Amino acid sequence: MQPTRAFFKIGVLAVALAMGSGNIAALAADKRTPPPELGKMEGREAQAFYLGLNAVMWGYPSVFFEDLMRTRAVPGSEATTGNPRSVVNQFGLVRHLRGPEFKQIATPNNDTLYAQAFTDLSREPLVLSVPEVEPDRYYVFQLWDPNGDTFAYVGSRTTGRDAGNYAFVGPDWKGQLPEGVKRIDSPYNAMAVWGRIGVNGPDDVQNAQAIQDKLRLTPLSHFGKSDSQVPPDMAFSEQRLVYEKPADLPEGIEFYYKLANALKHTPPKPVQDAVLADSLKQIGFKKGNTEFDYKSLSPEEVAGLSKAYQFGLHVMDVNAQTVGTSVNNWRWNPKSGIIGTDYLFRAAWAKWYTGGNAPEEAIYMDGRTDDKGQPFEGSKEYTMRFEKGQLPNVSAFWSLSMYHLSDGSFVENPIKRYSIGGRTPGLKTAEDGSLTIYIQHEAPKDAVEKANWLPSPAEGFYLNLRLYGPDDSLQKGSWAPPRVKVTEGG
Question: What are the φ/ψ torsions at residue 412 (nearest 5 degrees)?
Fold first, then answer.
């Protein structure tokens, strides 16, 4: 088929309608991925741009998954990622609450200790063994696939706090599991295990670490043979993660080379992805989309694909700050964690909210503007007031976290407070039972205000309100988070 201007215009119109001109304007002052200079595109460049943009939206999560898996496994990864090294099929245990030094994933939490693993089930199932957890301890192991969809949970809400063994089974395995081991089927051989162990304040970190120490992730063939953690299979991990960028790969199109590699492990879904997957052959993909023949592309096609990747990142950023249901200037999305075919939101979710839970486990409410509709600025002072009886309705806990607008990392501050919530020591309620949080860069002088202070950066920021174990009052409209109000003169 010959590329046409009409073909290109349809794609650009769809993107423009999805973004909205107001959304683009709102992002103009942001330091995230700027849109490339598109100029006038025709012919092969235009078609490559359109097809490439579709590929970026659709394939970004699986490419991101493979990159994350690879960077976590390399020697010395802790220095570059803020996480302990975790080879394939082994836990990486984060032994401290995360702070500003962690910048690999945007919008991390400061409420739990993580136990994370990237797994490959192509050889055999893996068995997760969890210890008994005390009655007031929140914990969860979220299982999500390379597309970002959560497909199962192990934890205090779903399986209880007793000790247990859970086998993660890939789509091709045939066999019987030992008695007492519960089966959990994964849609792909690749999957992530995102464990979170609640920490009830700084003095509780060691107790949460003790739970981490008892976790086990065991290949089925070794299960029951020892109480110790099975040593990692380094050869298998290295083979699984092998990747080498070709020296002659044109600048700006490595994403597509990585996509072909990712599709070896996360193939398209036969029905819902069929049309998009078939279109990849028009931009150099071969052998069932597992090879990228970049040498067959014309200079015009290379230029179109390069622009598509940069523009795709920009559209993800816009989507991340605009999509969802808005309640008092807070946004959340009922599709979070289980996204399906909303490819744009799926990509934005991977980039900005990696491994976020499904709403039944936790709700994430994104705050970017004050009560006057203006973006948060570090030069202003704000308050968030919960009236008596109007704190979040949760069975576990809630927290409000502060992030740099530029990269989604925590904000360094003199009191080392990166989030505030129901478990923060020393919070002060007013005589009328209300709770006011003070959000500003400079420390308040009033003692009560300082006790309830969430420090902001000097520049732009955004907030995230987390509800762990939420009830359905938000969905039903019987509860809503209060607006963040700008202080007069602040």
Answer: -65, 140
- Helix axis angle, 299-322 relative to 254-262, nearest 10°? 70
Identify whether residues 407 and 430 lie together within a single domain.
yes
Q: Could you identify the residue written with the tokens 């199962």?
A: 152
Tell me which of 407 and 18 has the higher pLDDT.
407
Q: Are 180 and 165 in contact (CB under 8 A)?
A: yes
Same domain assignment for residues 380 and 420: yes
41 near 49, Cβ under 8 Å?
Answer: yes
DSSP 3-state of 292: strand
Span 172-228, pLDDT tens digits: 999 999 999 999 999 999 999 999 999 988 889 999 999 999 999 999 999 999 989
Q: CA geometry: angle at 346 spanning 334 and 184, to 5°?
A: 75
Residue 84: inside a domain, yes or no?
A: no
SS3 state of residue 12: helix
Any domain includes 83: no
Token reading at 82: 């803020």
Give kind and range of the element (H or E) at residue 68: helix 43-73
Residue 25 identity = A
Residues 159 and 195 both lie in one domain: yes
Alpha-carbon gap, residue 448 to 452, rounded angstroms: 6
| DSSP assigned state of 34 | P
CATH number at residue 141: 2.60.40.1610
Tokens encoding 172: 């091709």
pLDDT digit string, tens, across residues 26-62:
333 344 577 777 888 999 999 999 999 999 999 999 9
In a 3-state reduction of DSSP, which class is residue 188? coil
The half-sphere exposure of 89 on its side-chain side, counting CA atoms within 13 A, is 29
Residue 118 near residue 192, CB atoms below 8 Å: yes
Residues 135 and 18 both lie in one domain = no
Does a structural domain hold residue 222? yes
Domain that holds residue 309: 5-68+241-321
Can you read off the two tokens belonging to residue 459? 């520049």
Query: d(Cα 2, Cα 80) in Å, to the nearest integer?
Result: 46
The three-state secondary structure class of 330 is strand
Boundary residue ending a domain (176, 199, 231): 231
Share in percent of the chain as helix, strand, coil (round to 5) = 30, 25, 50
User: Is the distance from CB of 48 to CB of 35 less than 8 angstroms?
Assistant: no
User: Tokens in use for 479?
Assistant: 């509860």
Percent of the chain with pLDDT over 90: 80
DSSP conformation letters of 72-136: HHSTTHHHHHSS----TTS-EE--S---TT--SSSS--SSEEEEEEEEE-SSS-EEEEE----TT
Note whether 166 and 258 are same-domain residues.
no
Q: Do 324 and 363 touch, CB atoms closer than 8 A?
A: no
What is the CB neighbour count within 10 angstroms for residue 254?
17
* Distance, CA of 422 to CA of 9 (rounded, Å): 51
- Six token digits for residue 86: 């975790």
For residues 162 and 468, give the distance between their C-alpha atoms in angstroms, rounded to a whole number. 20
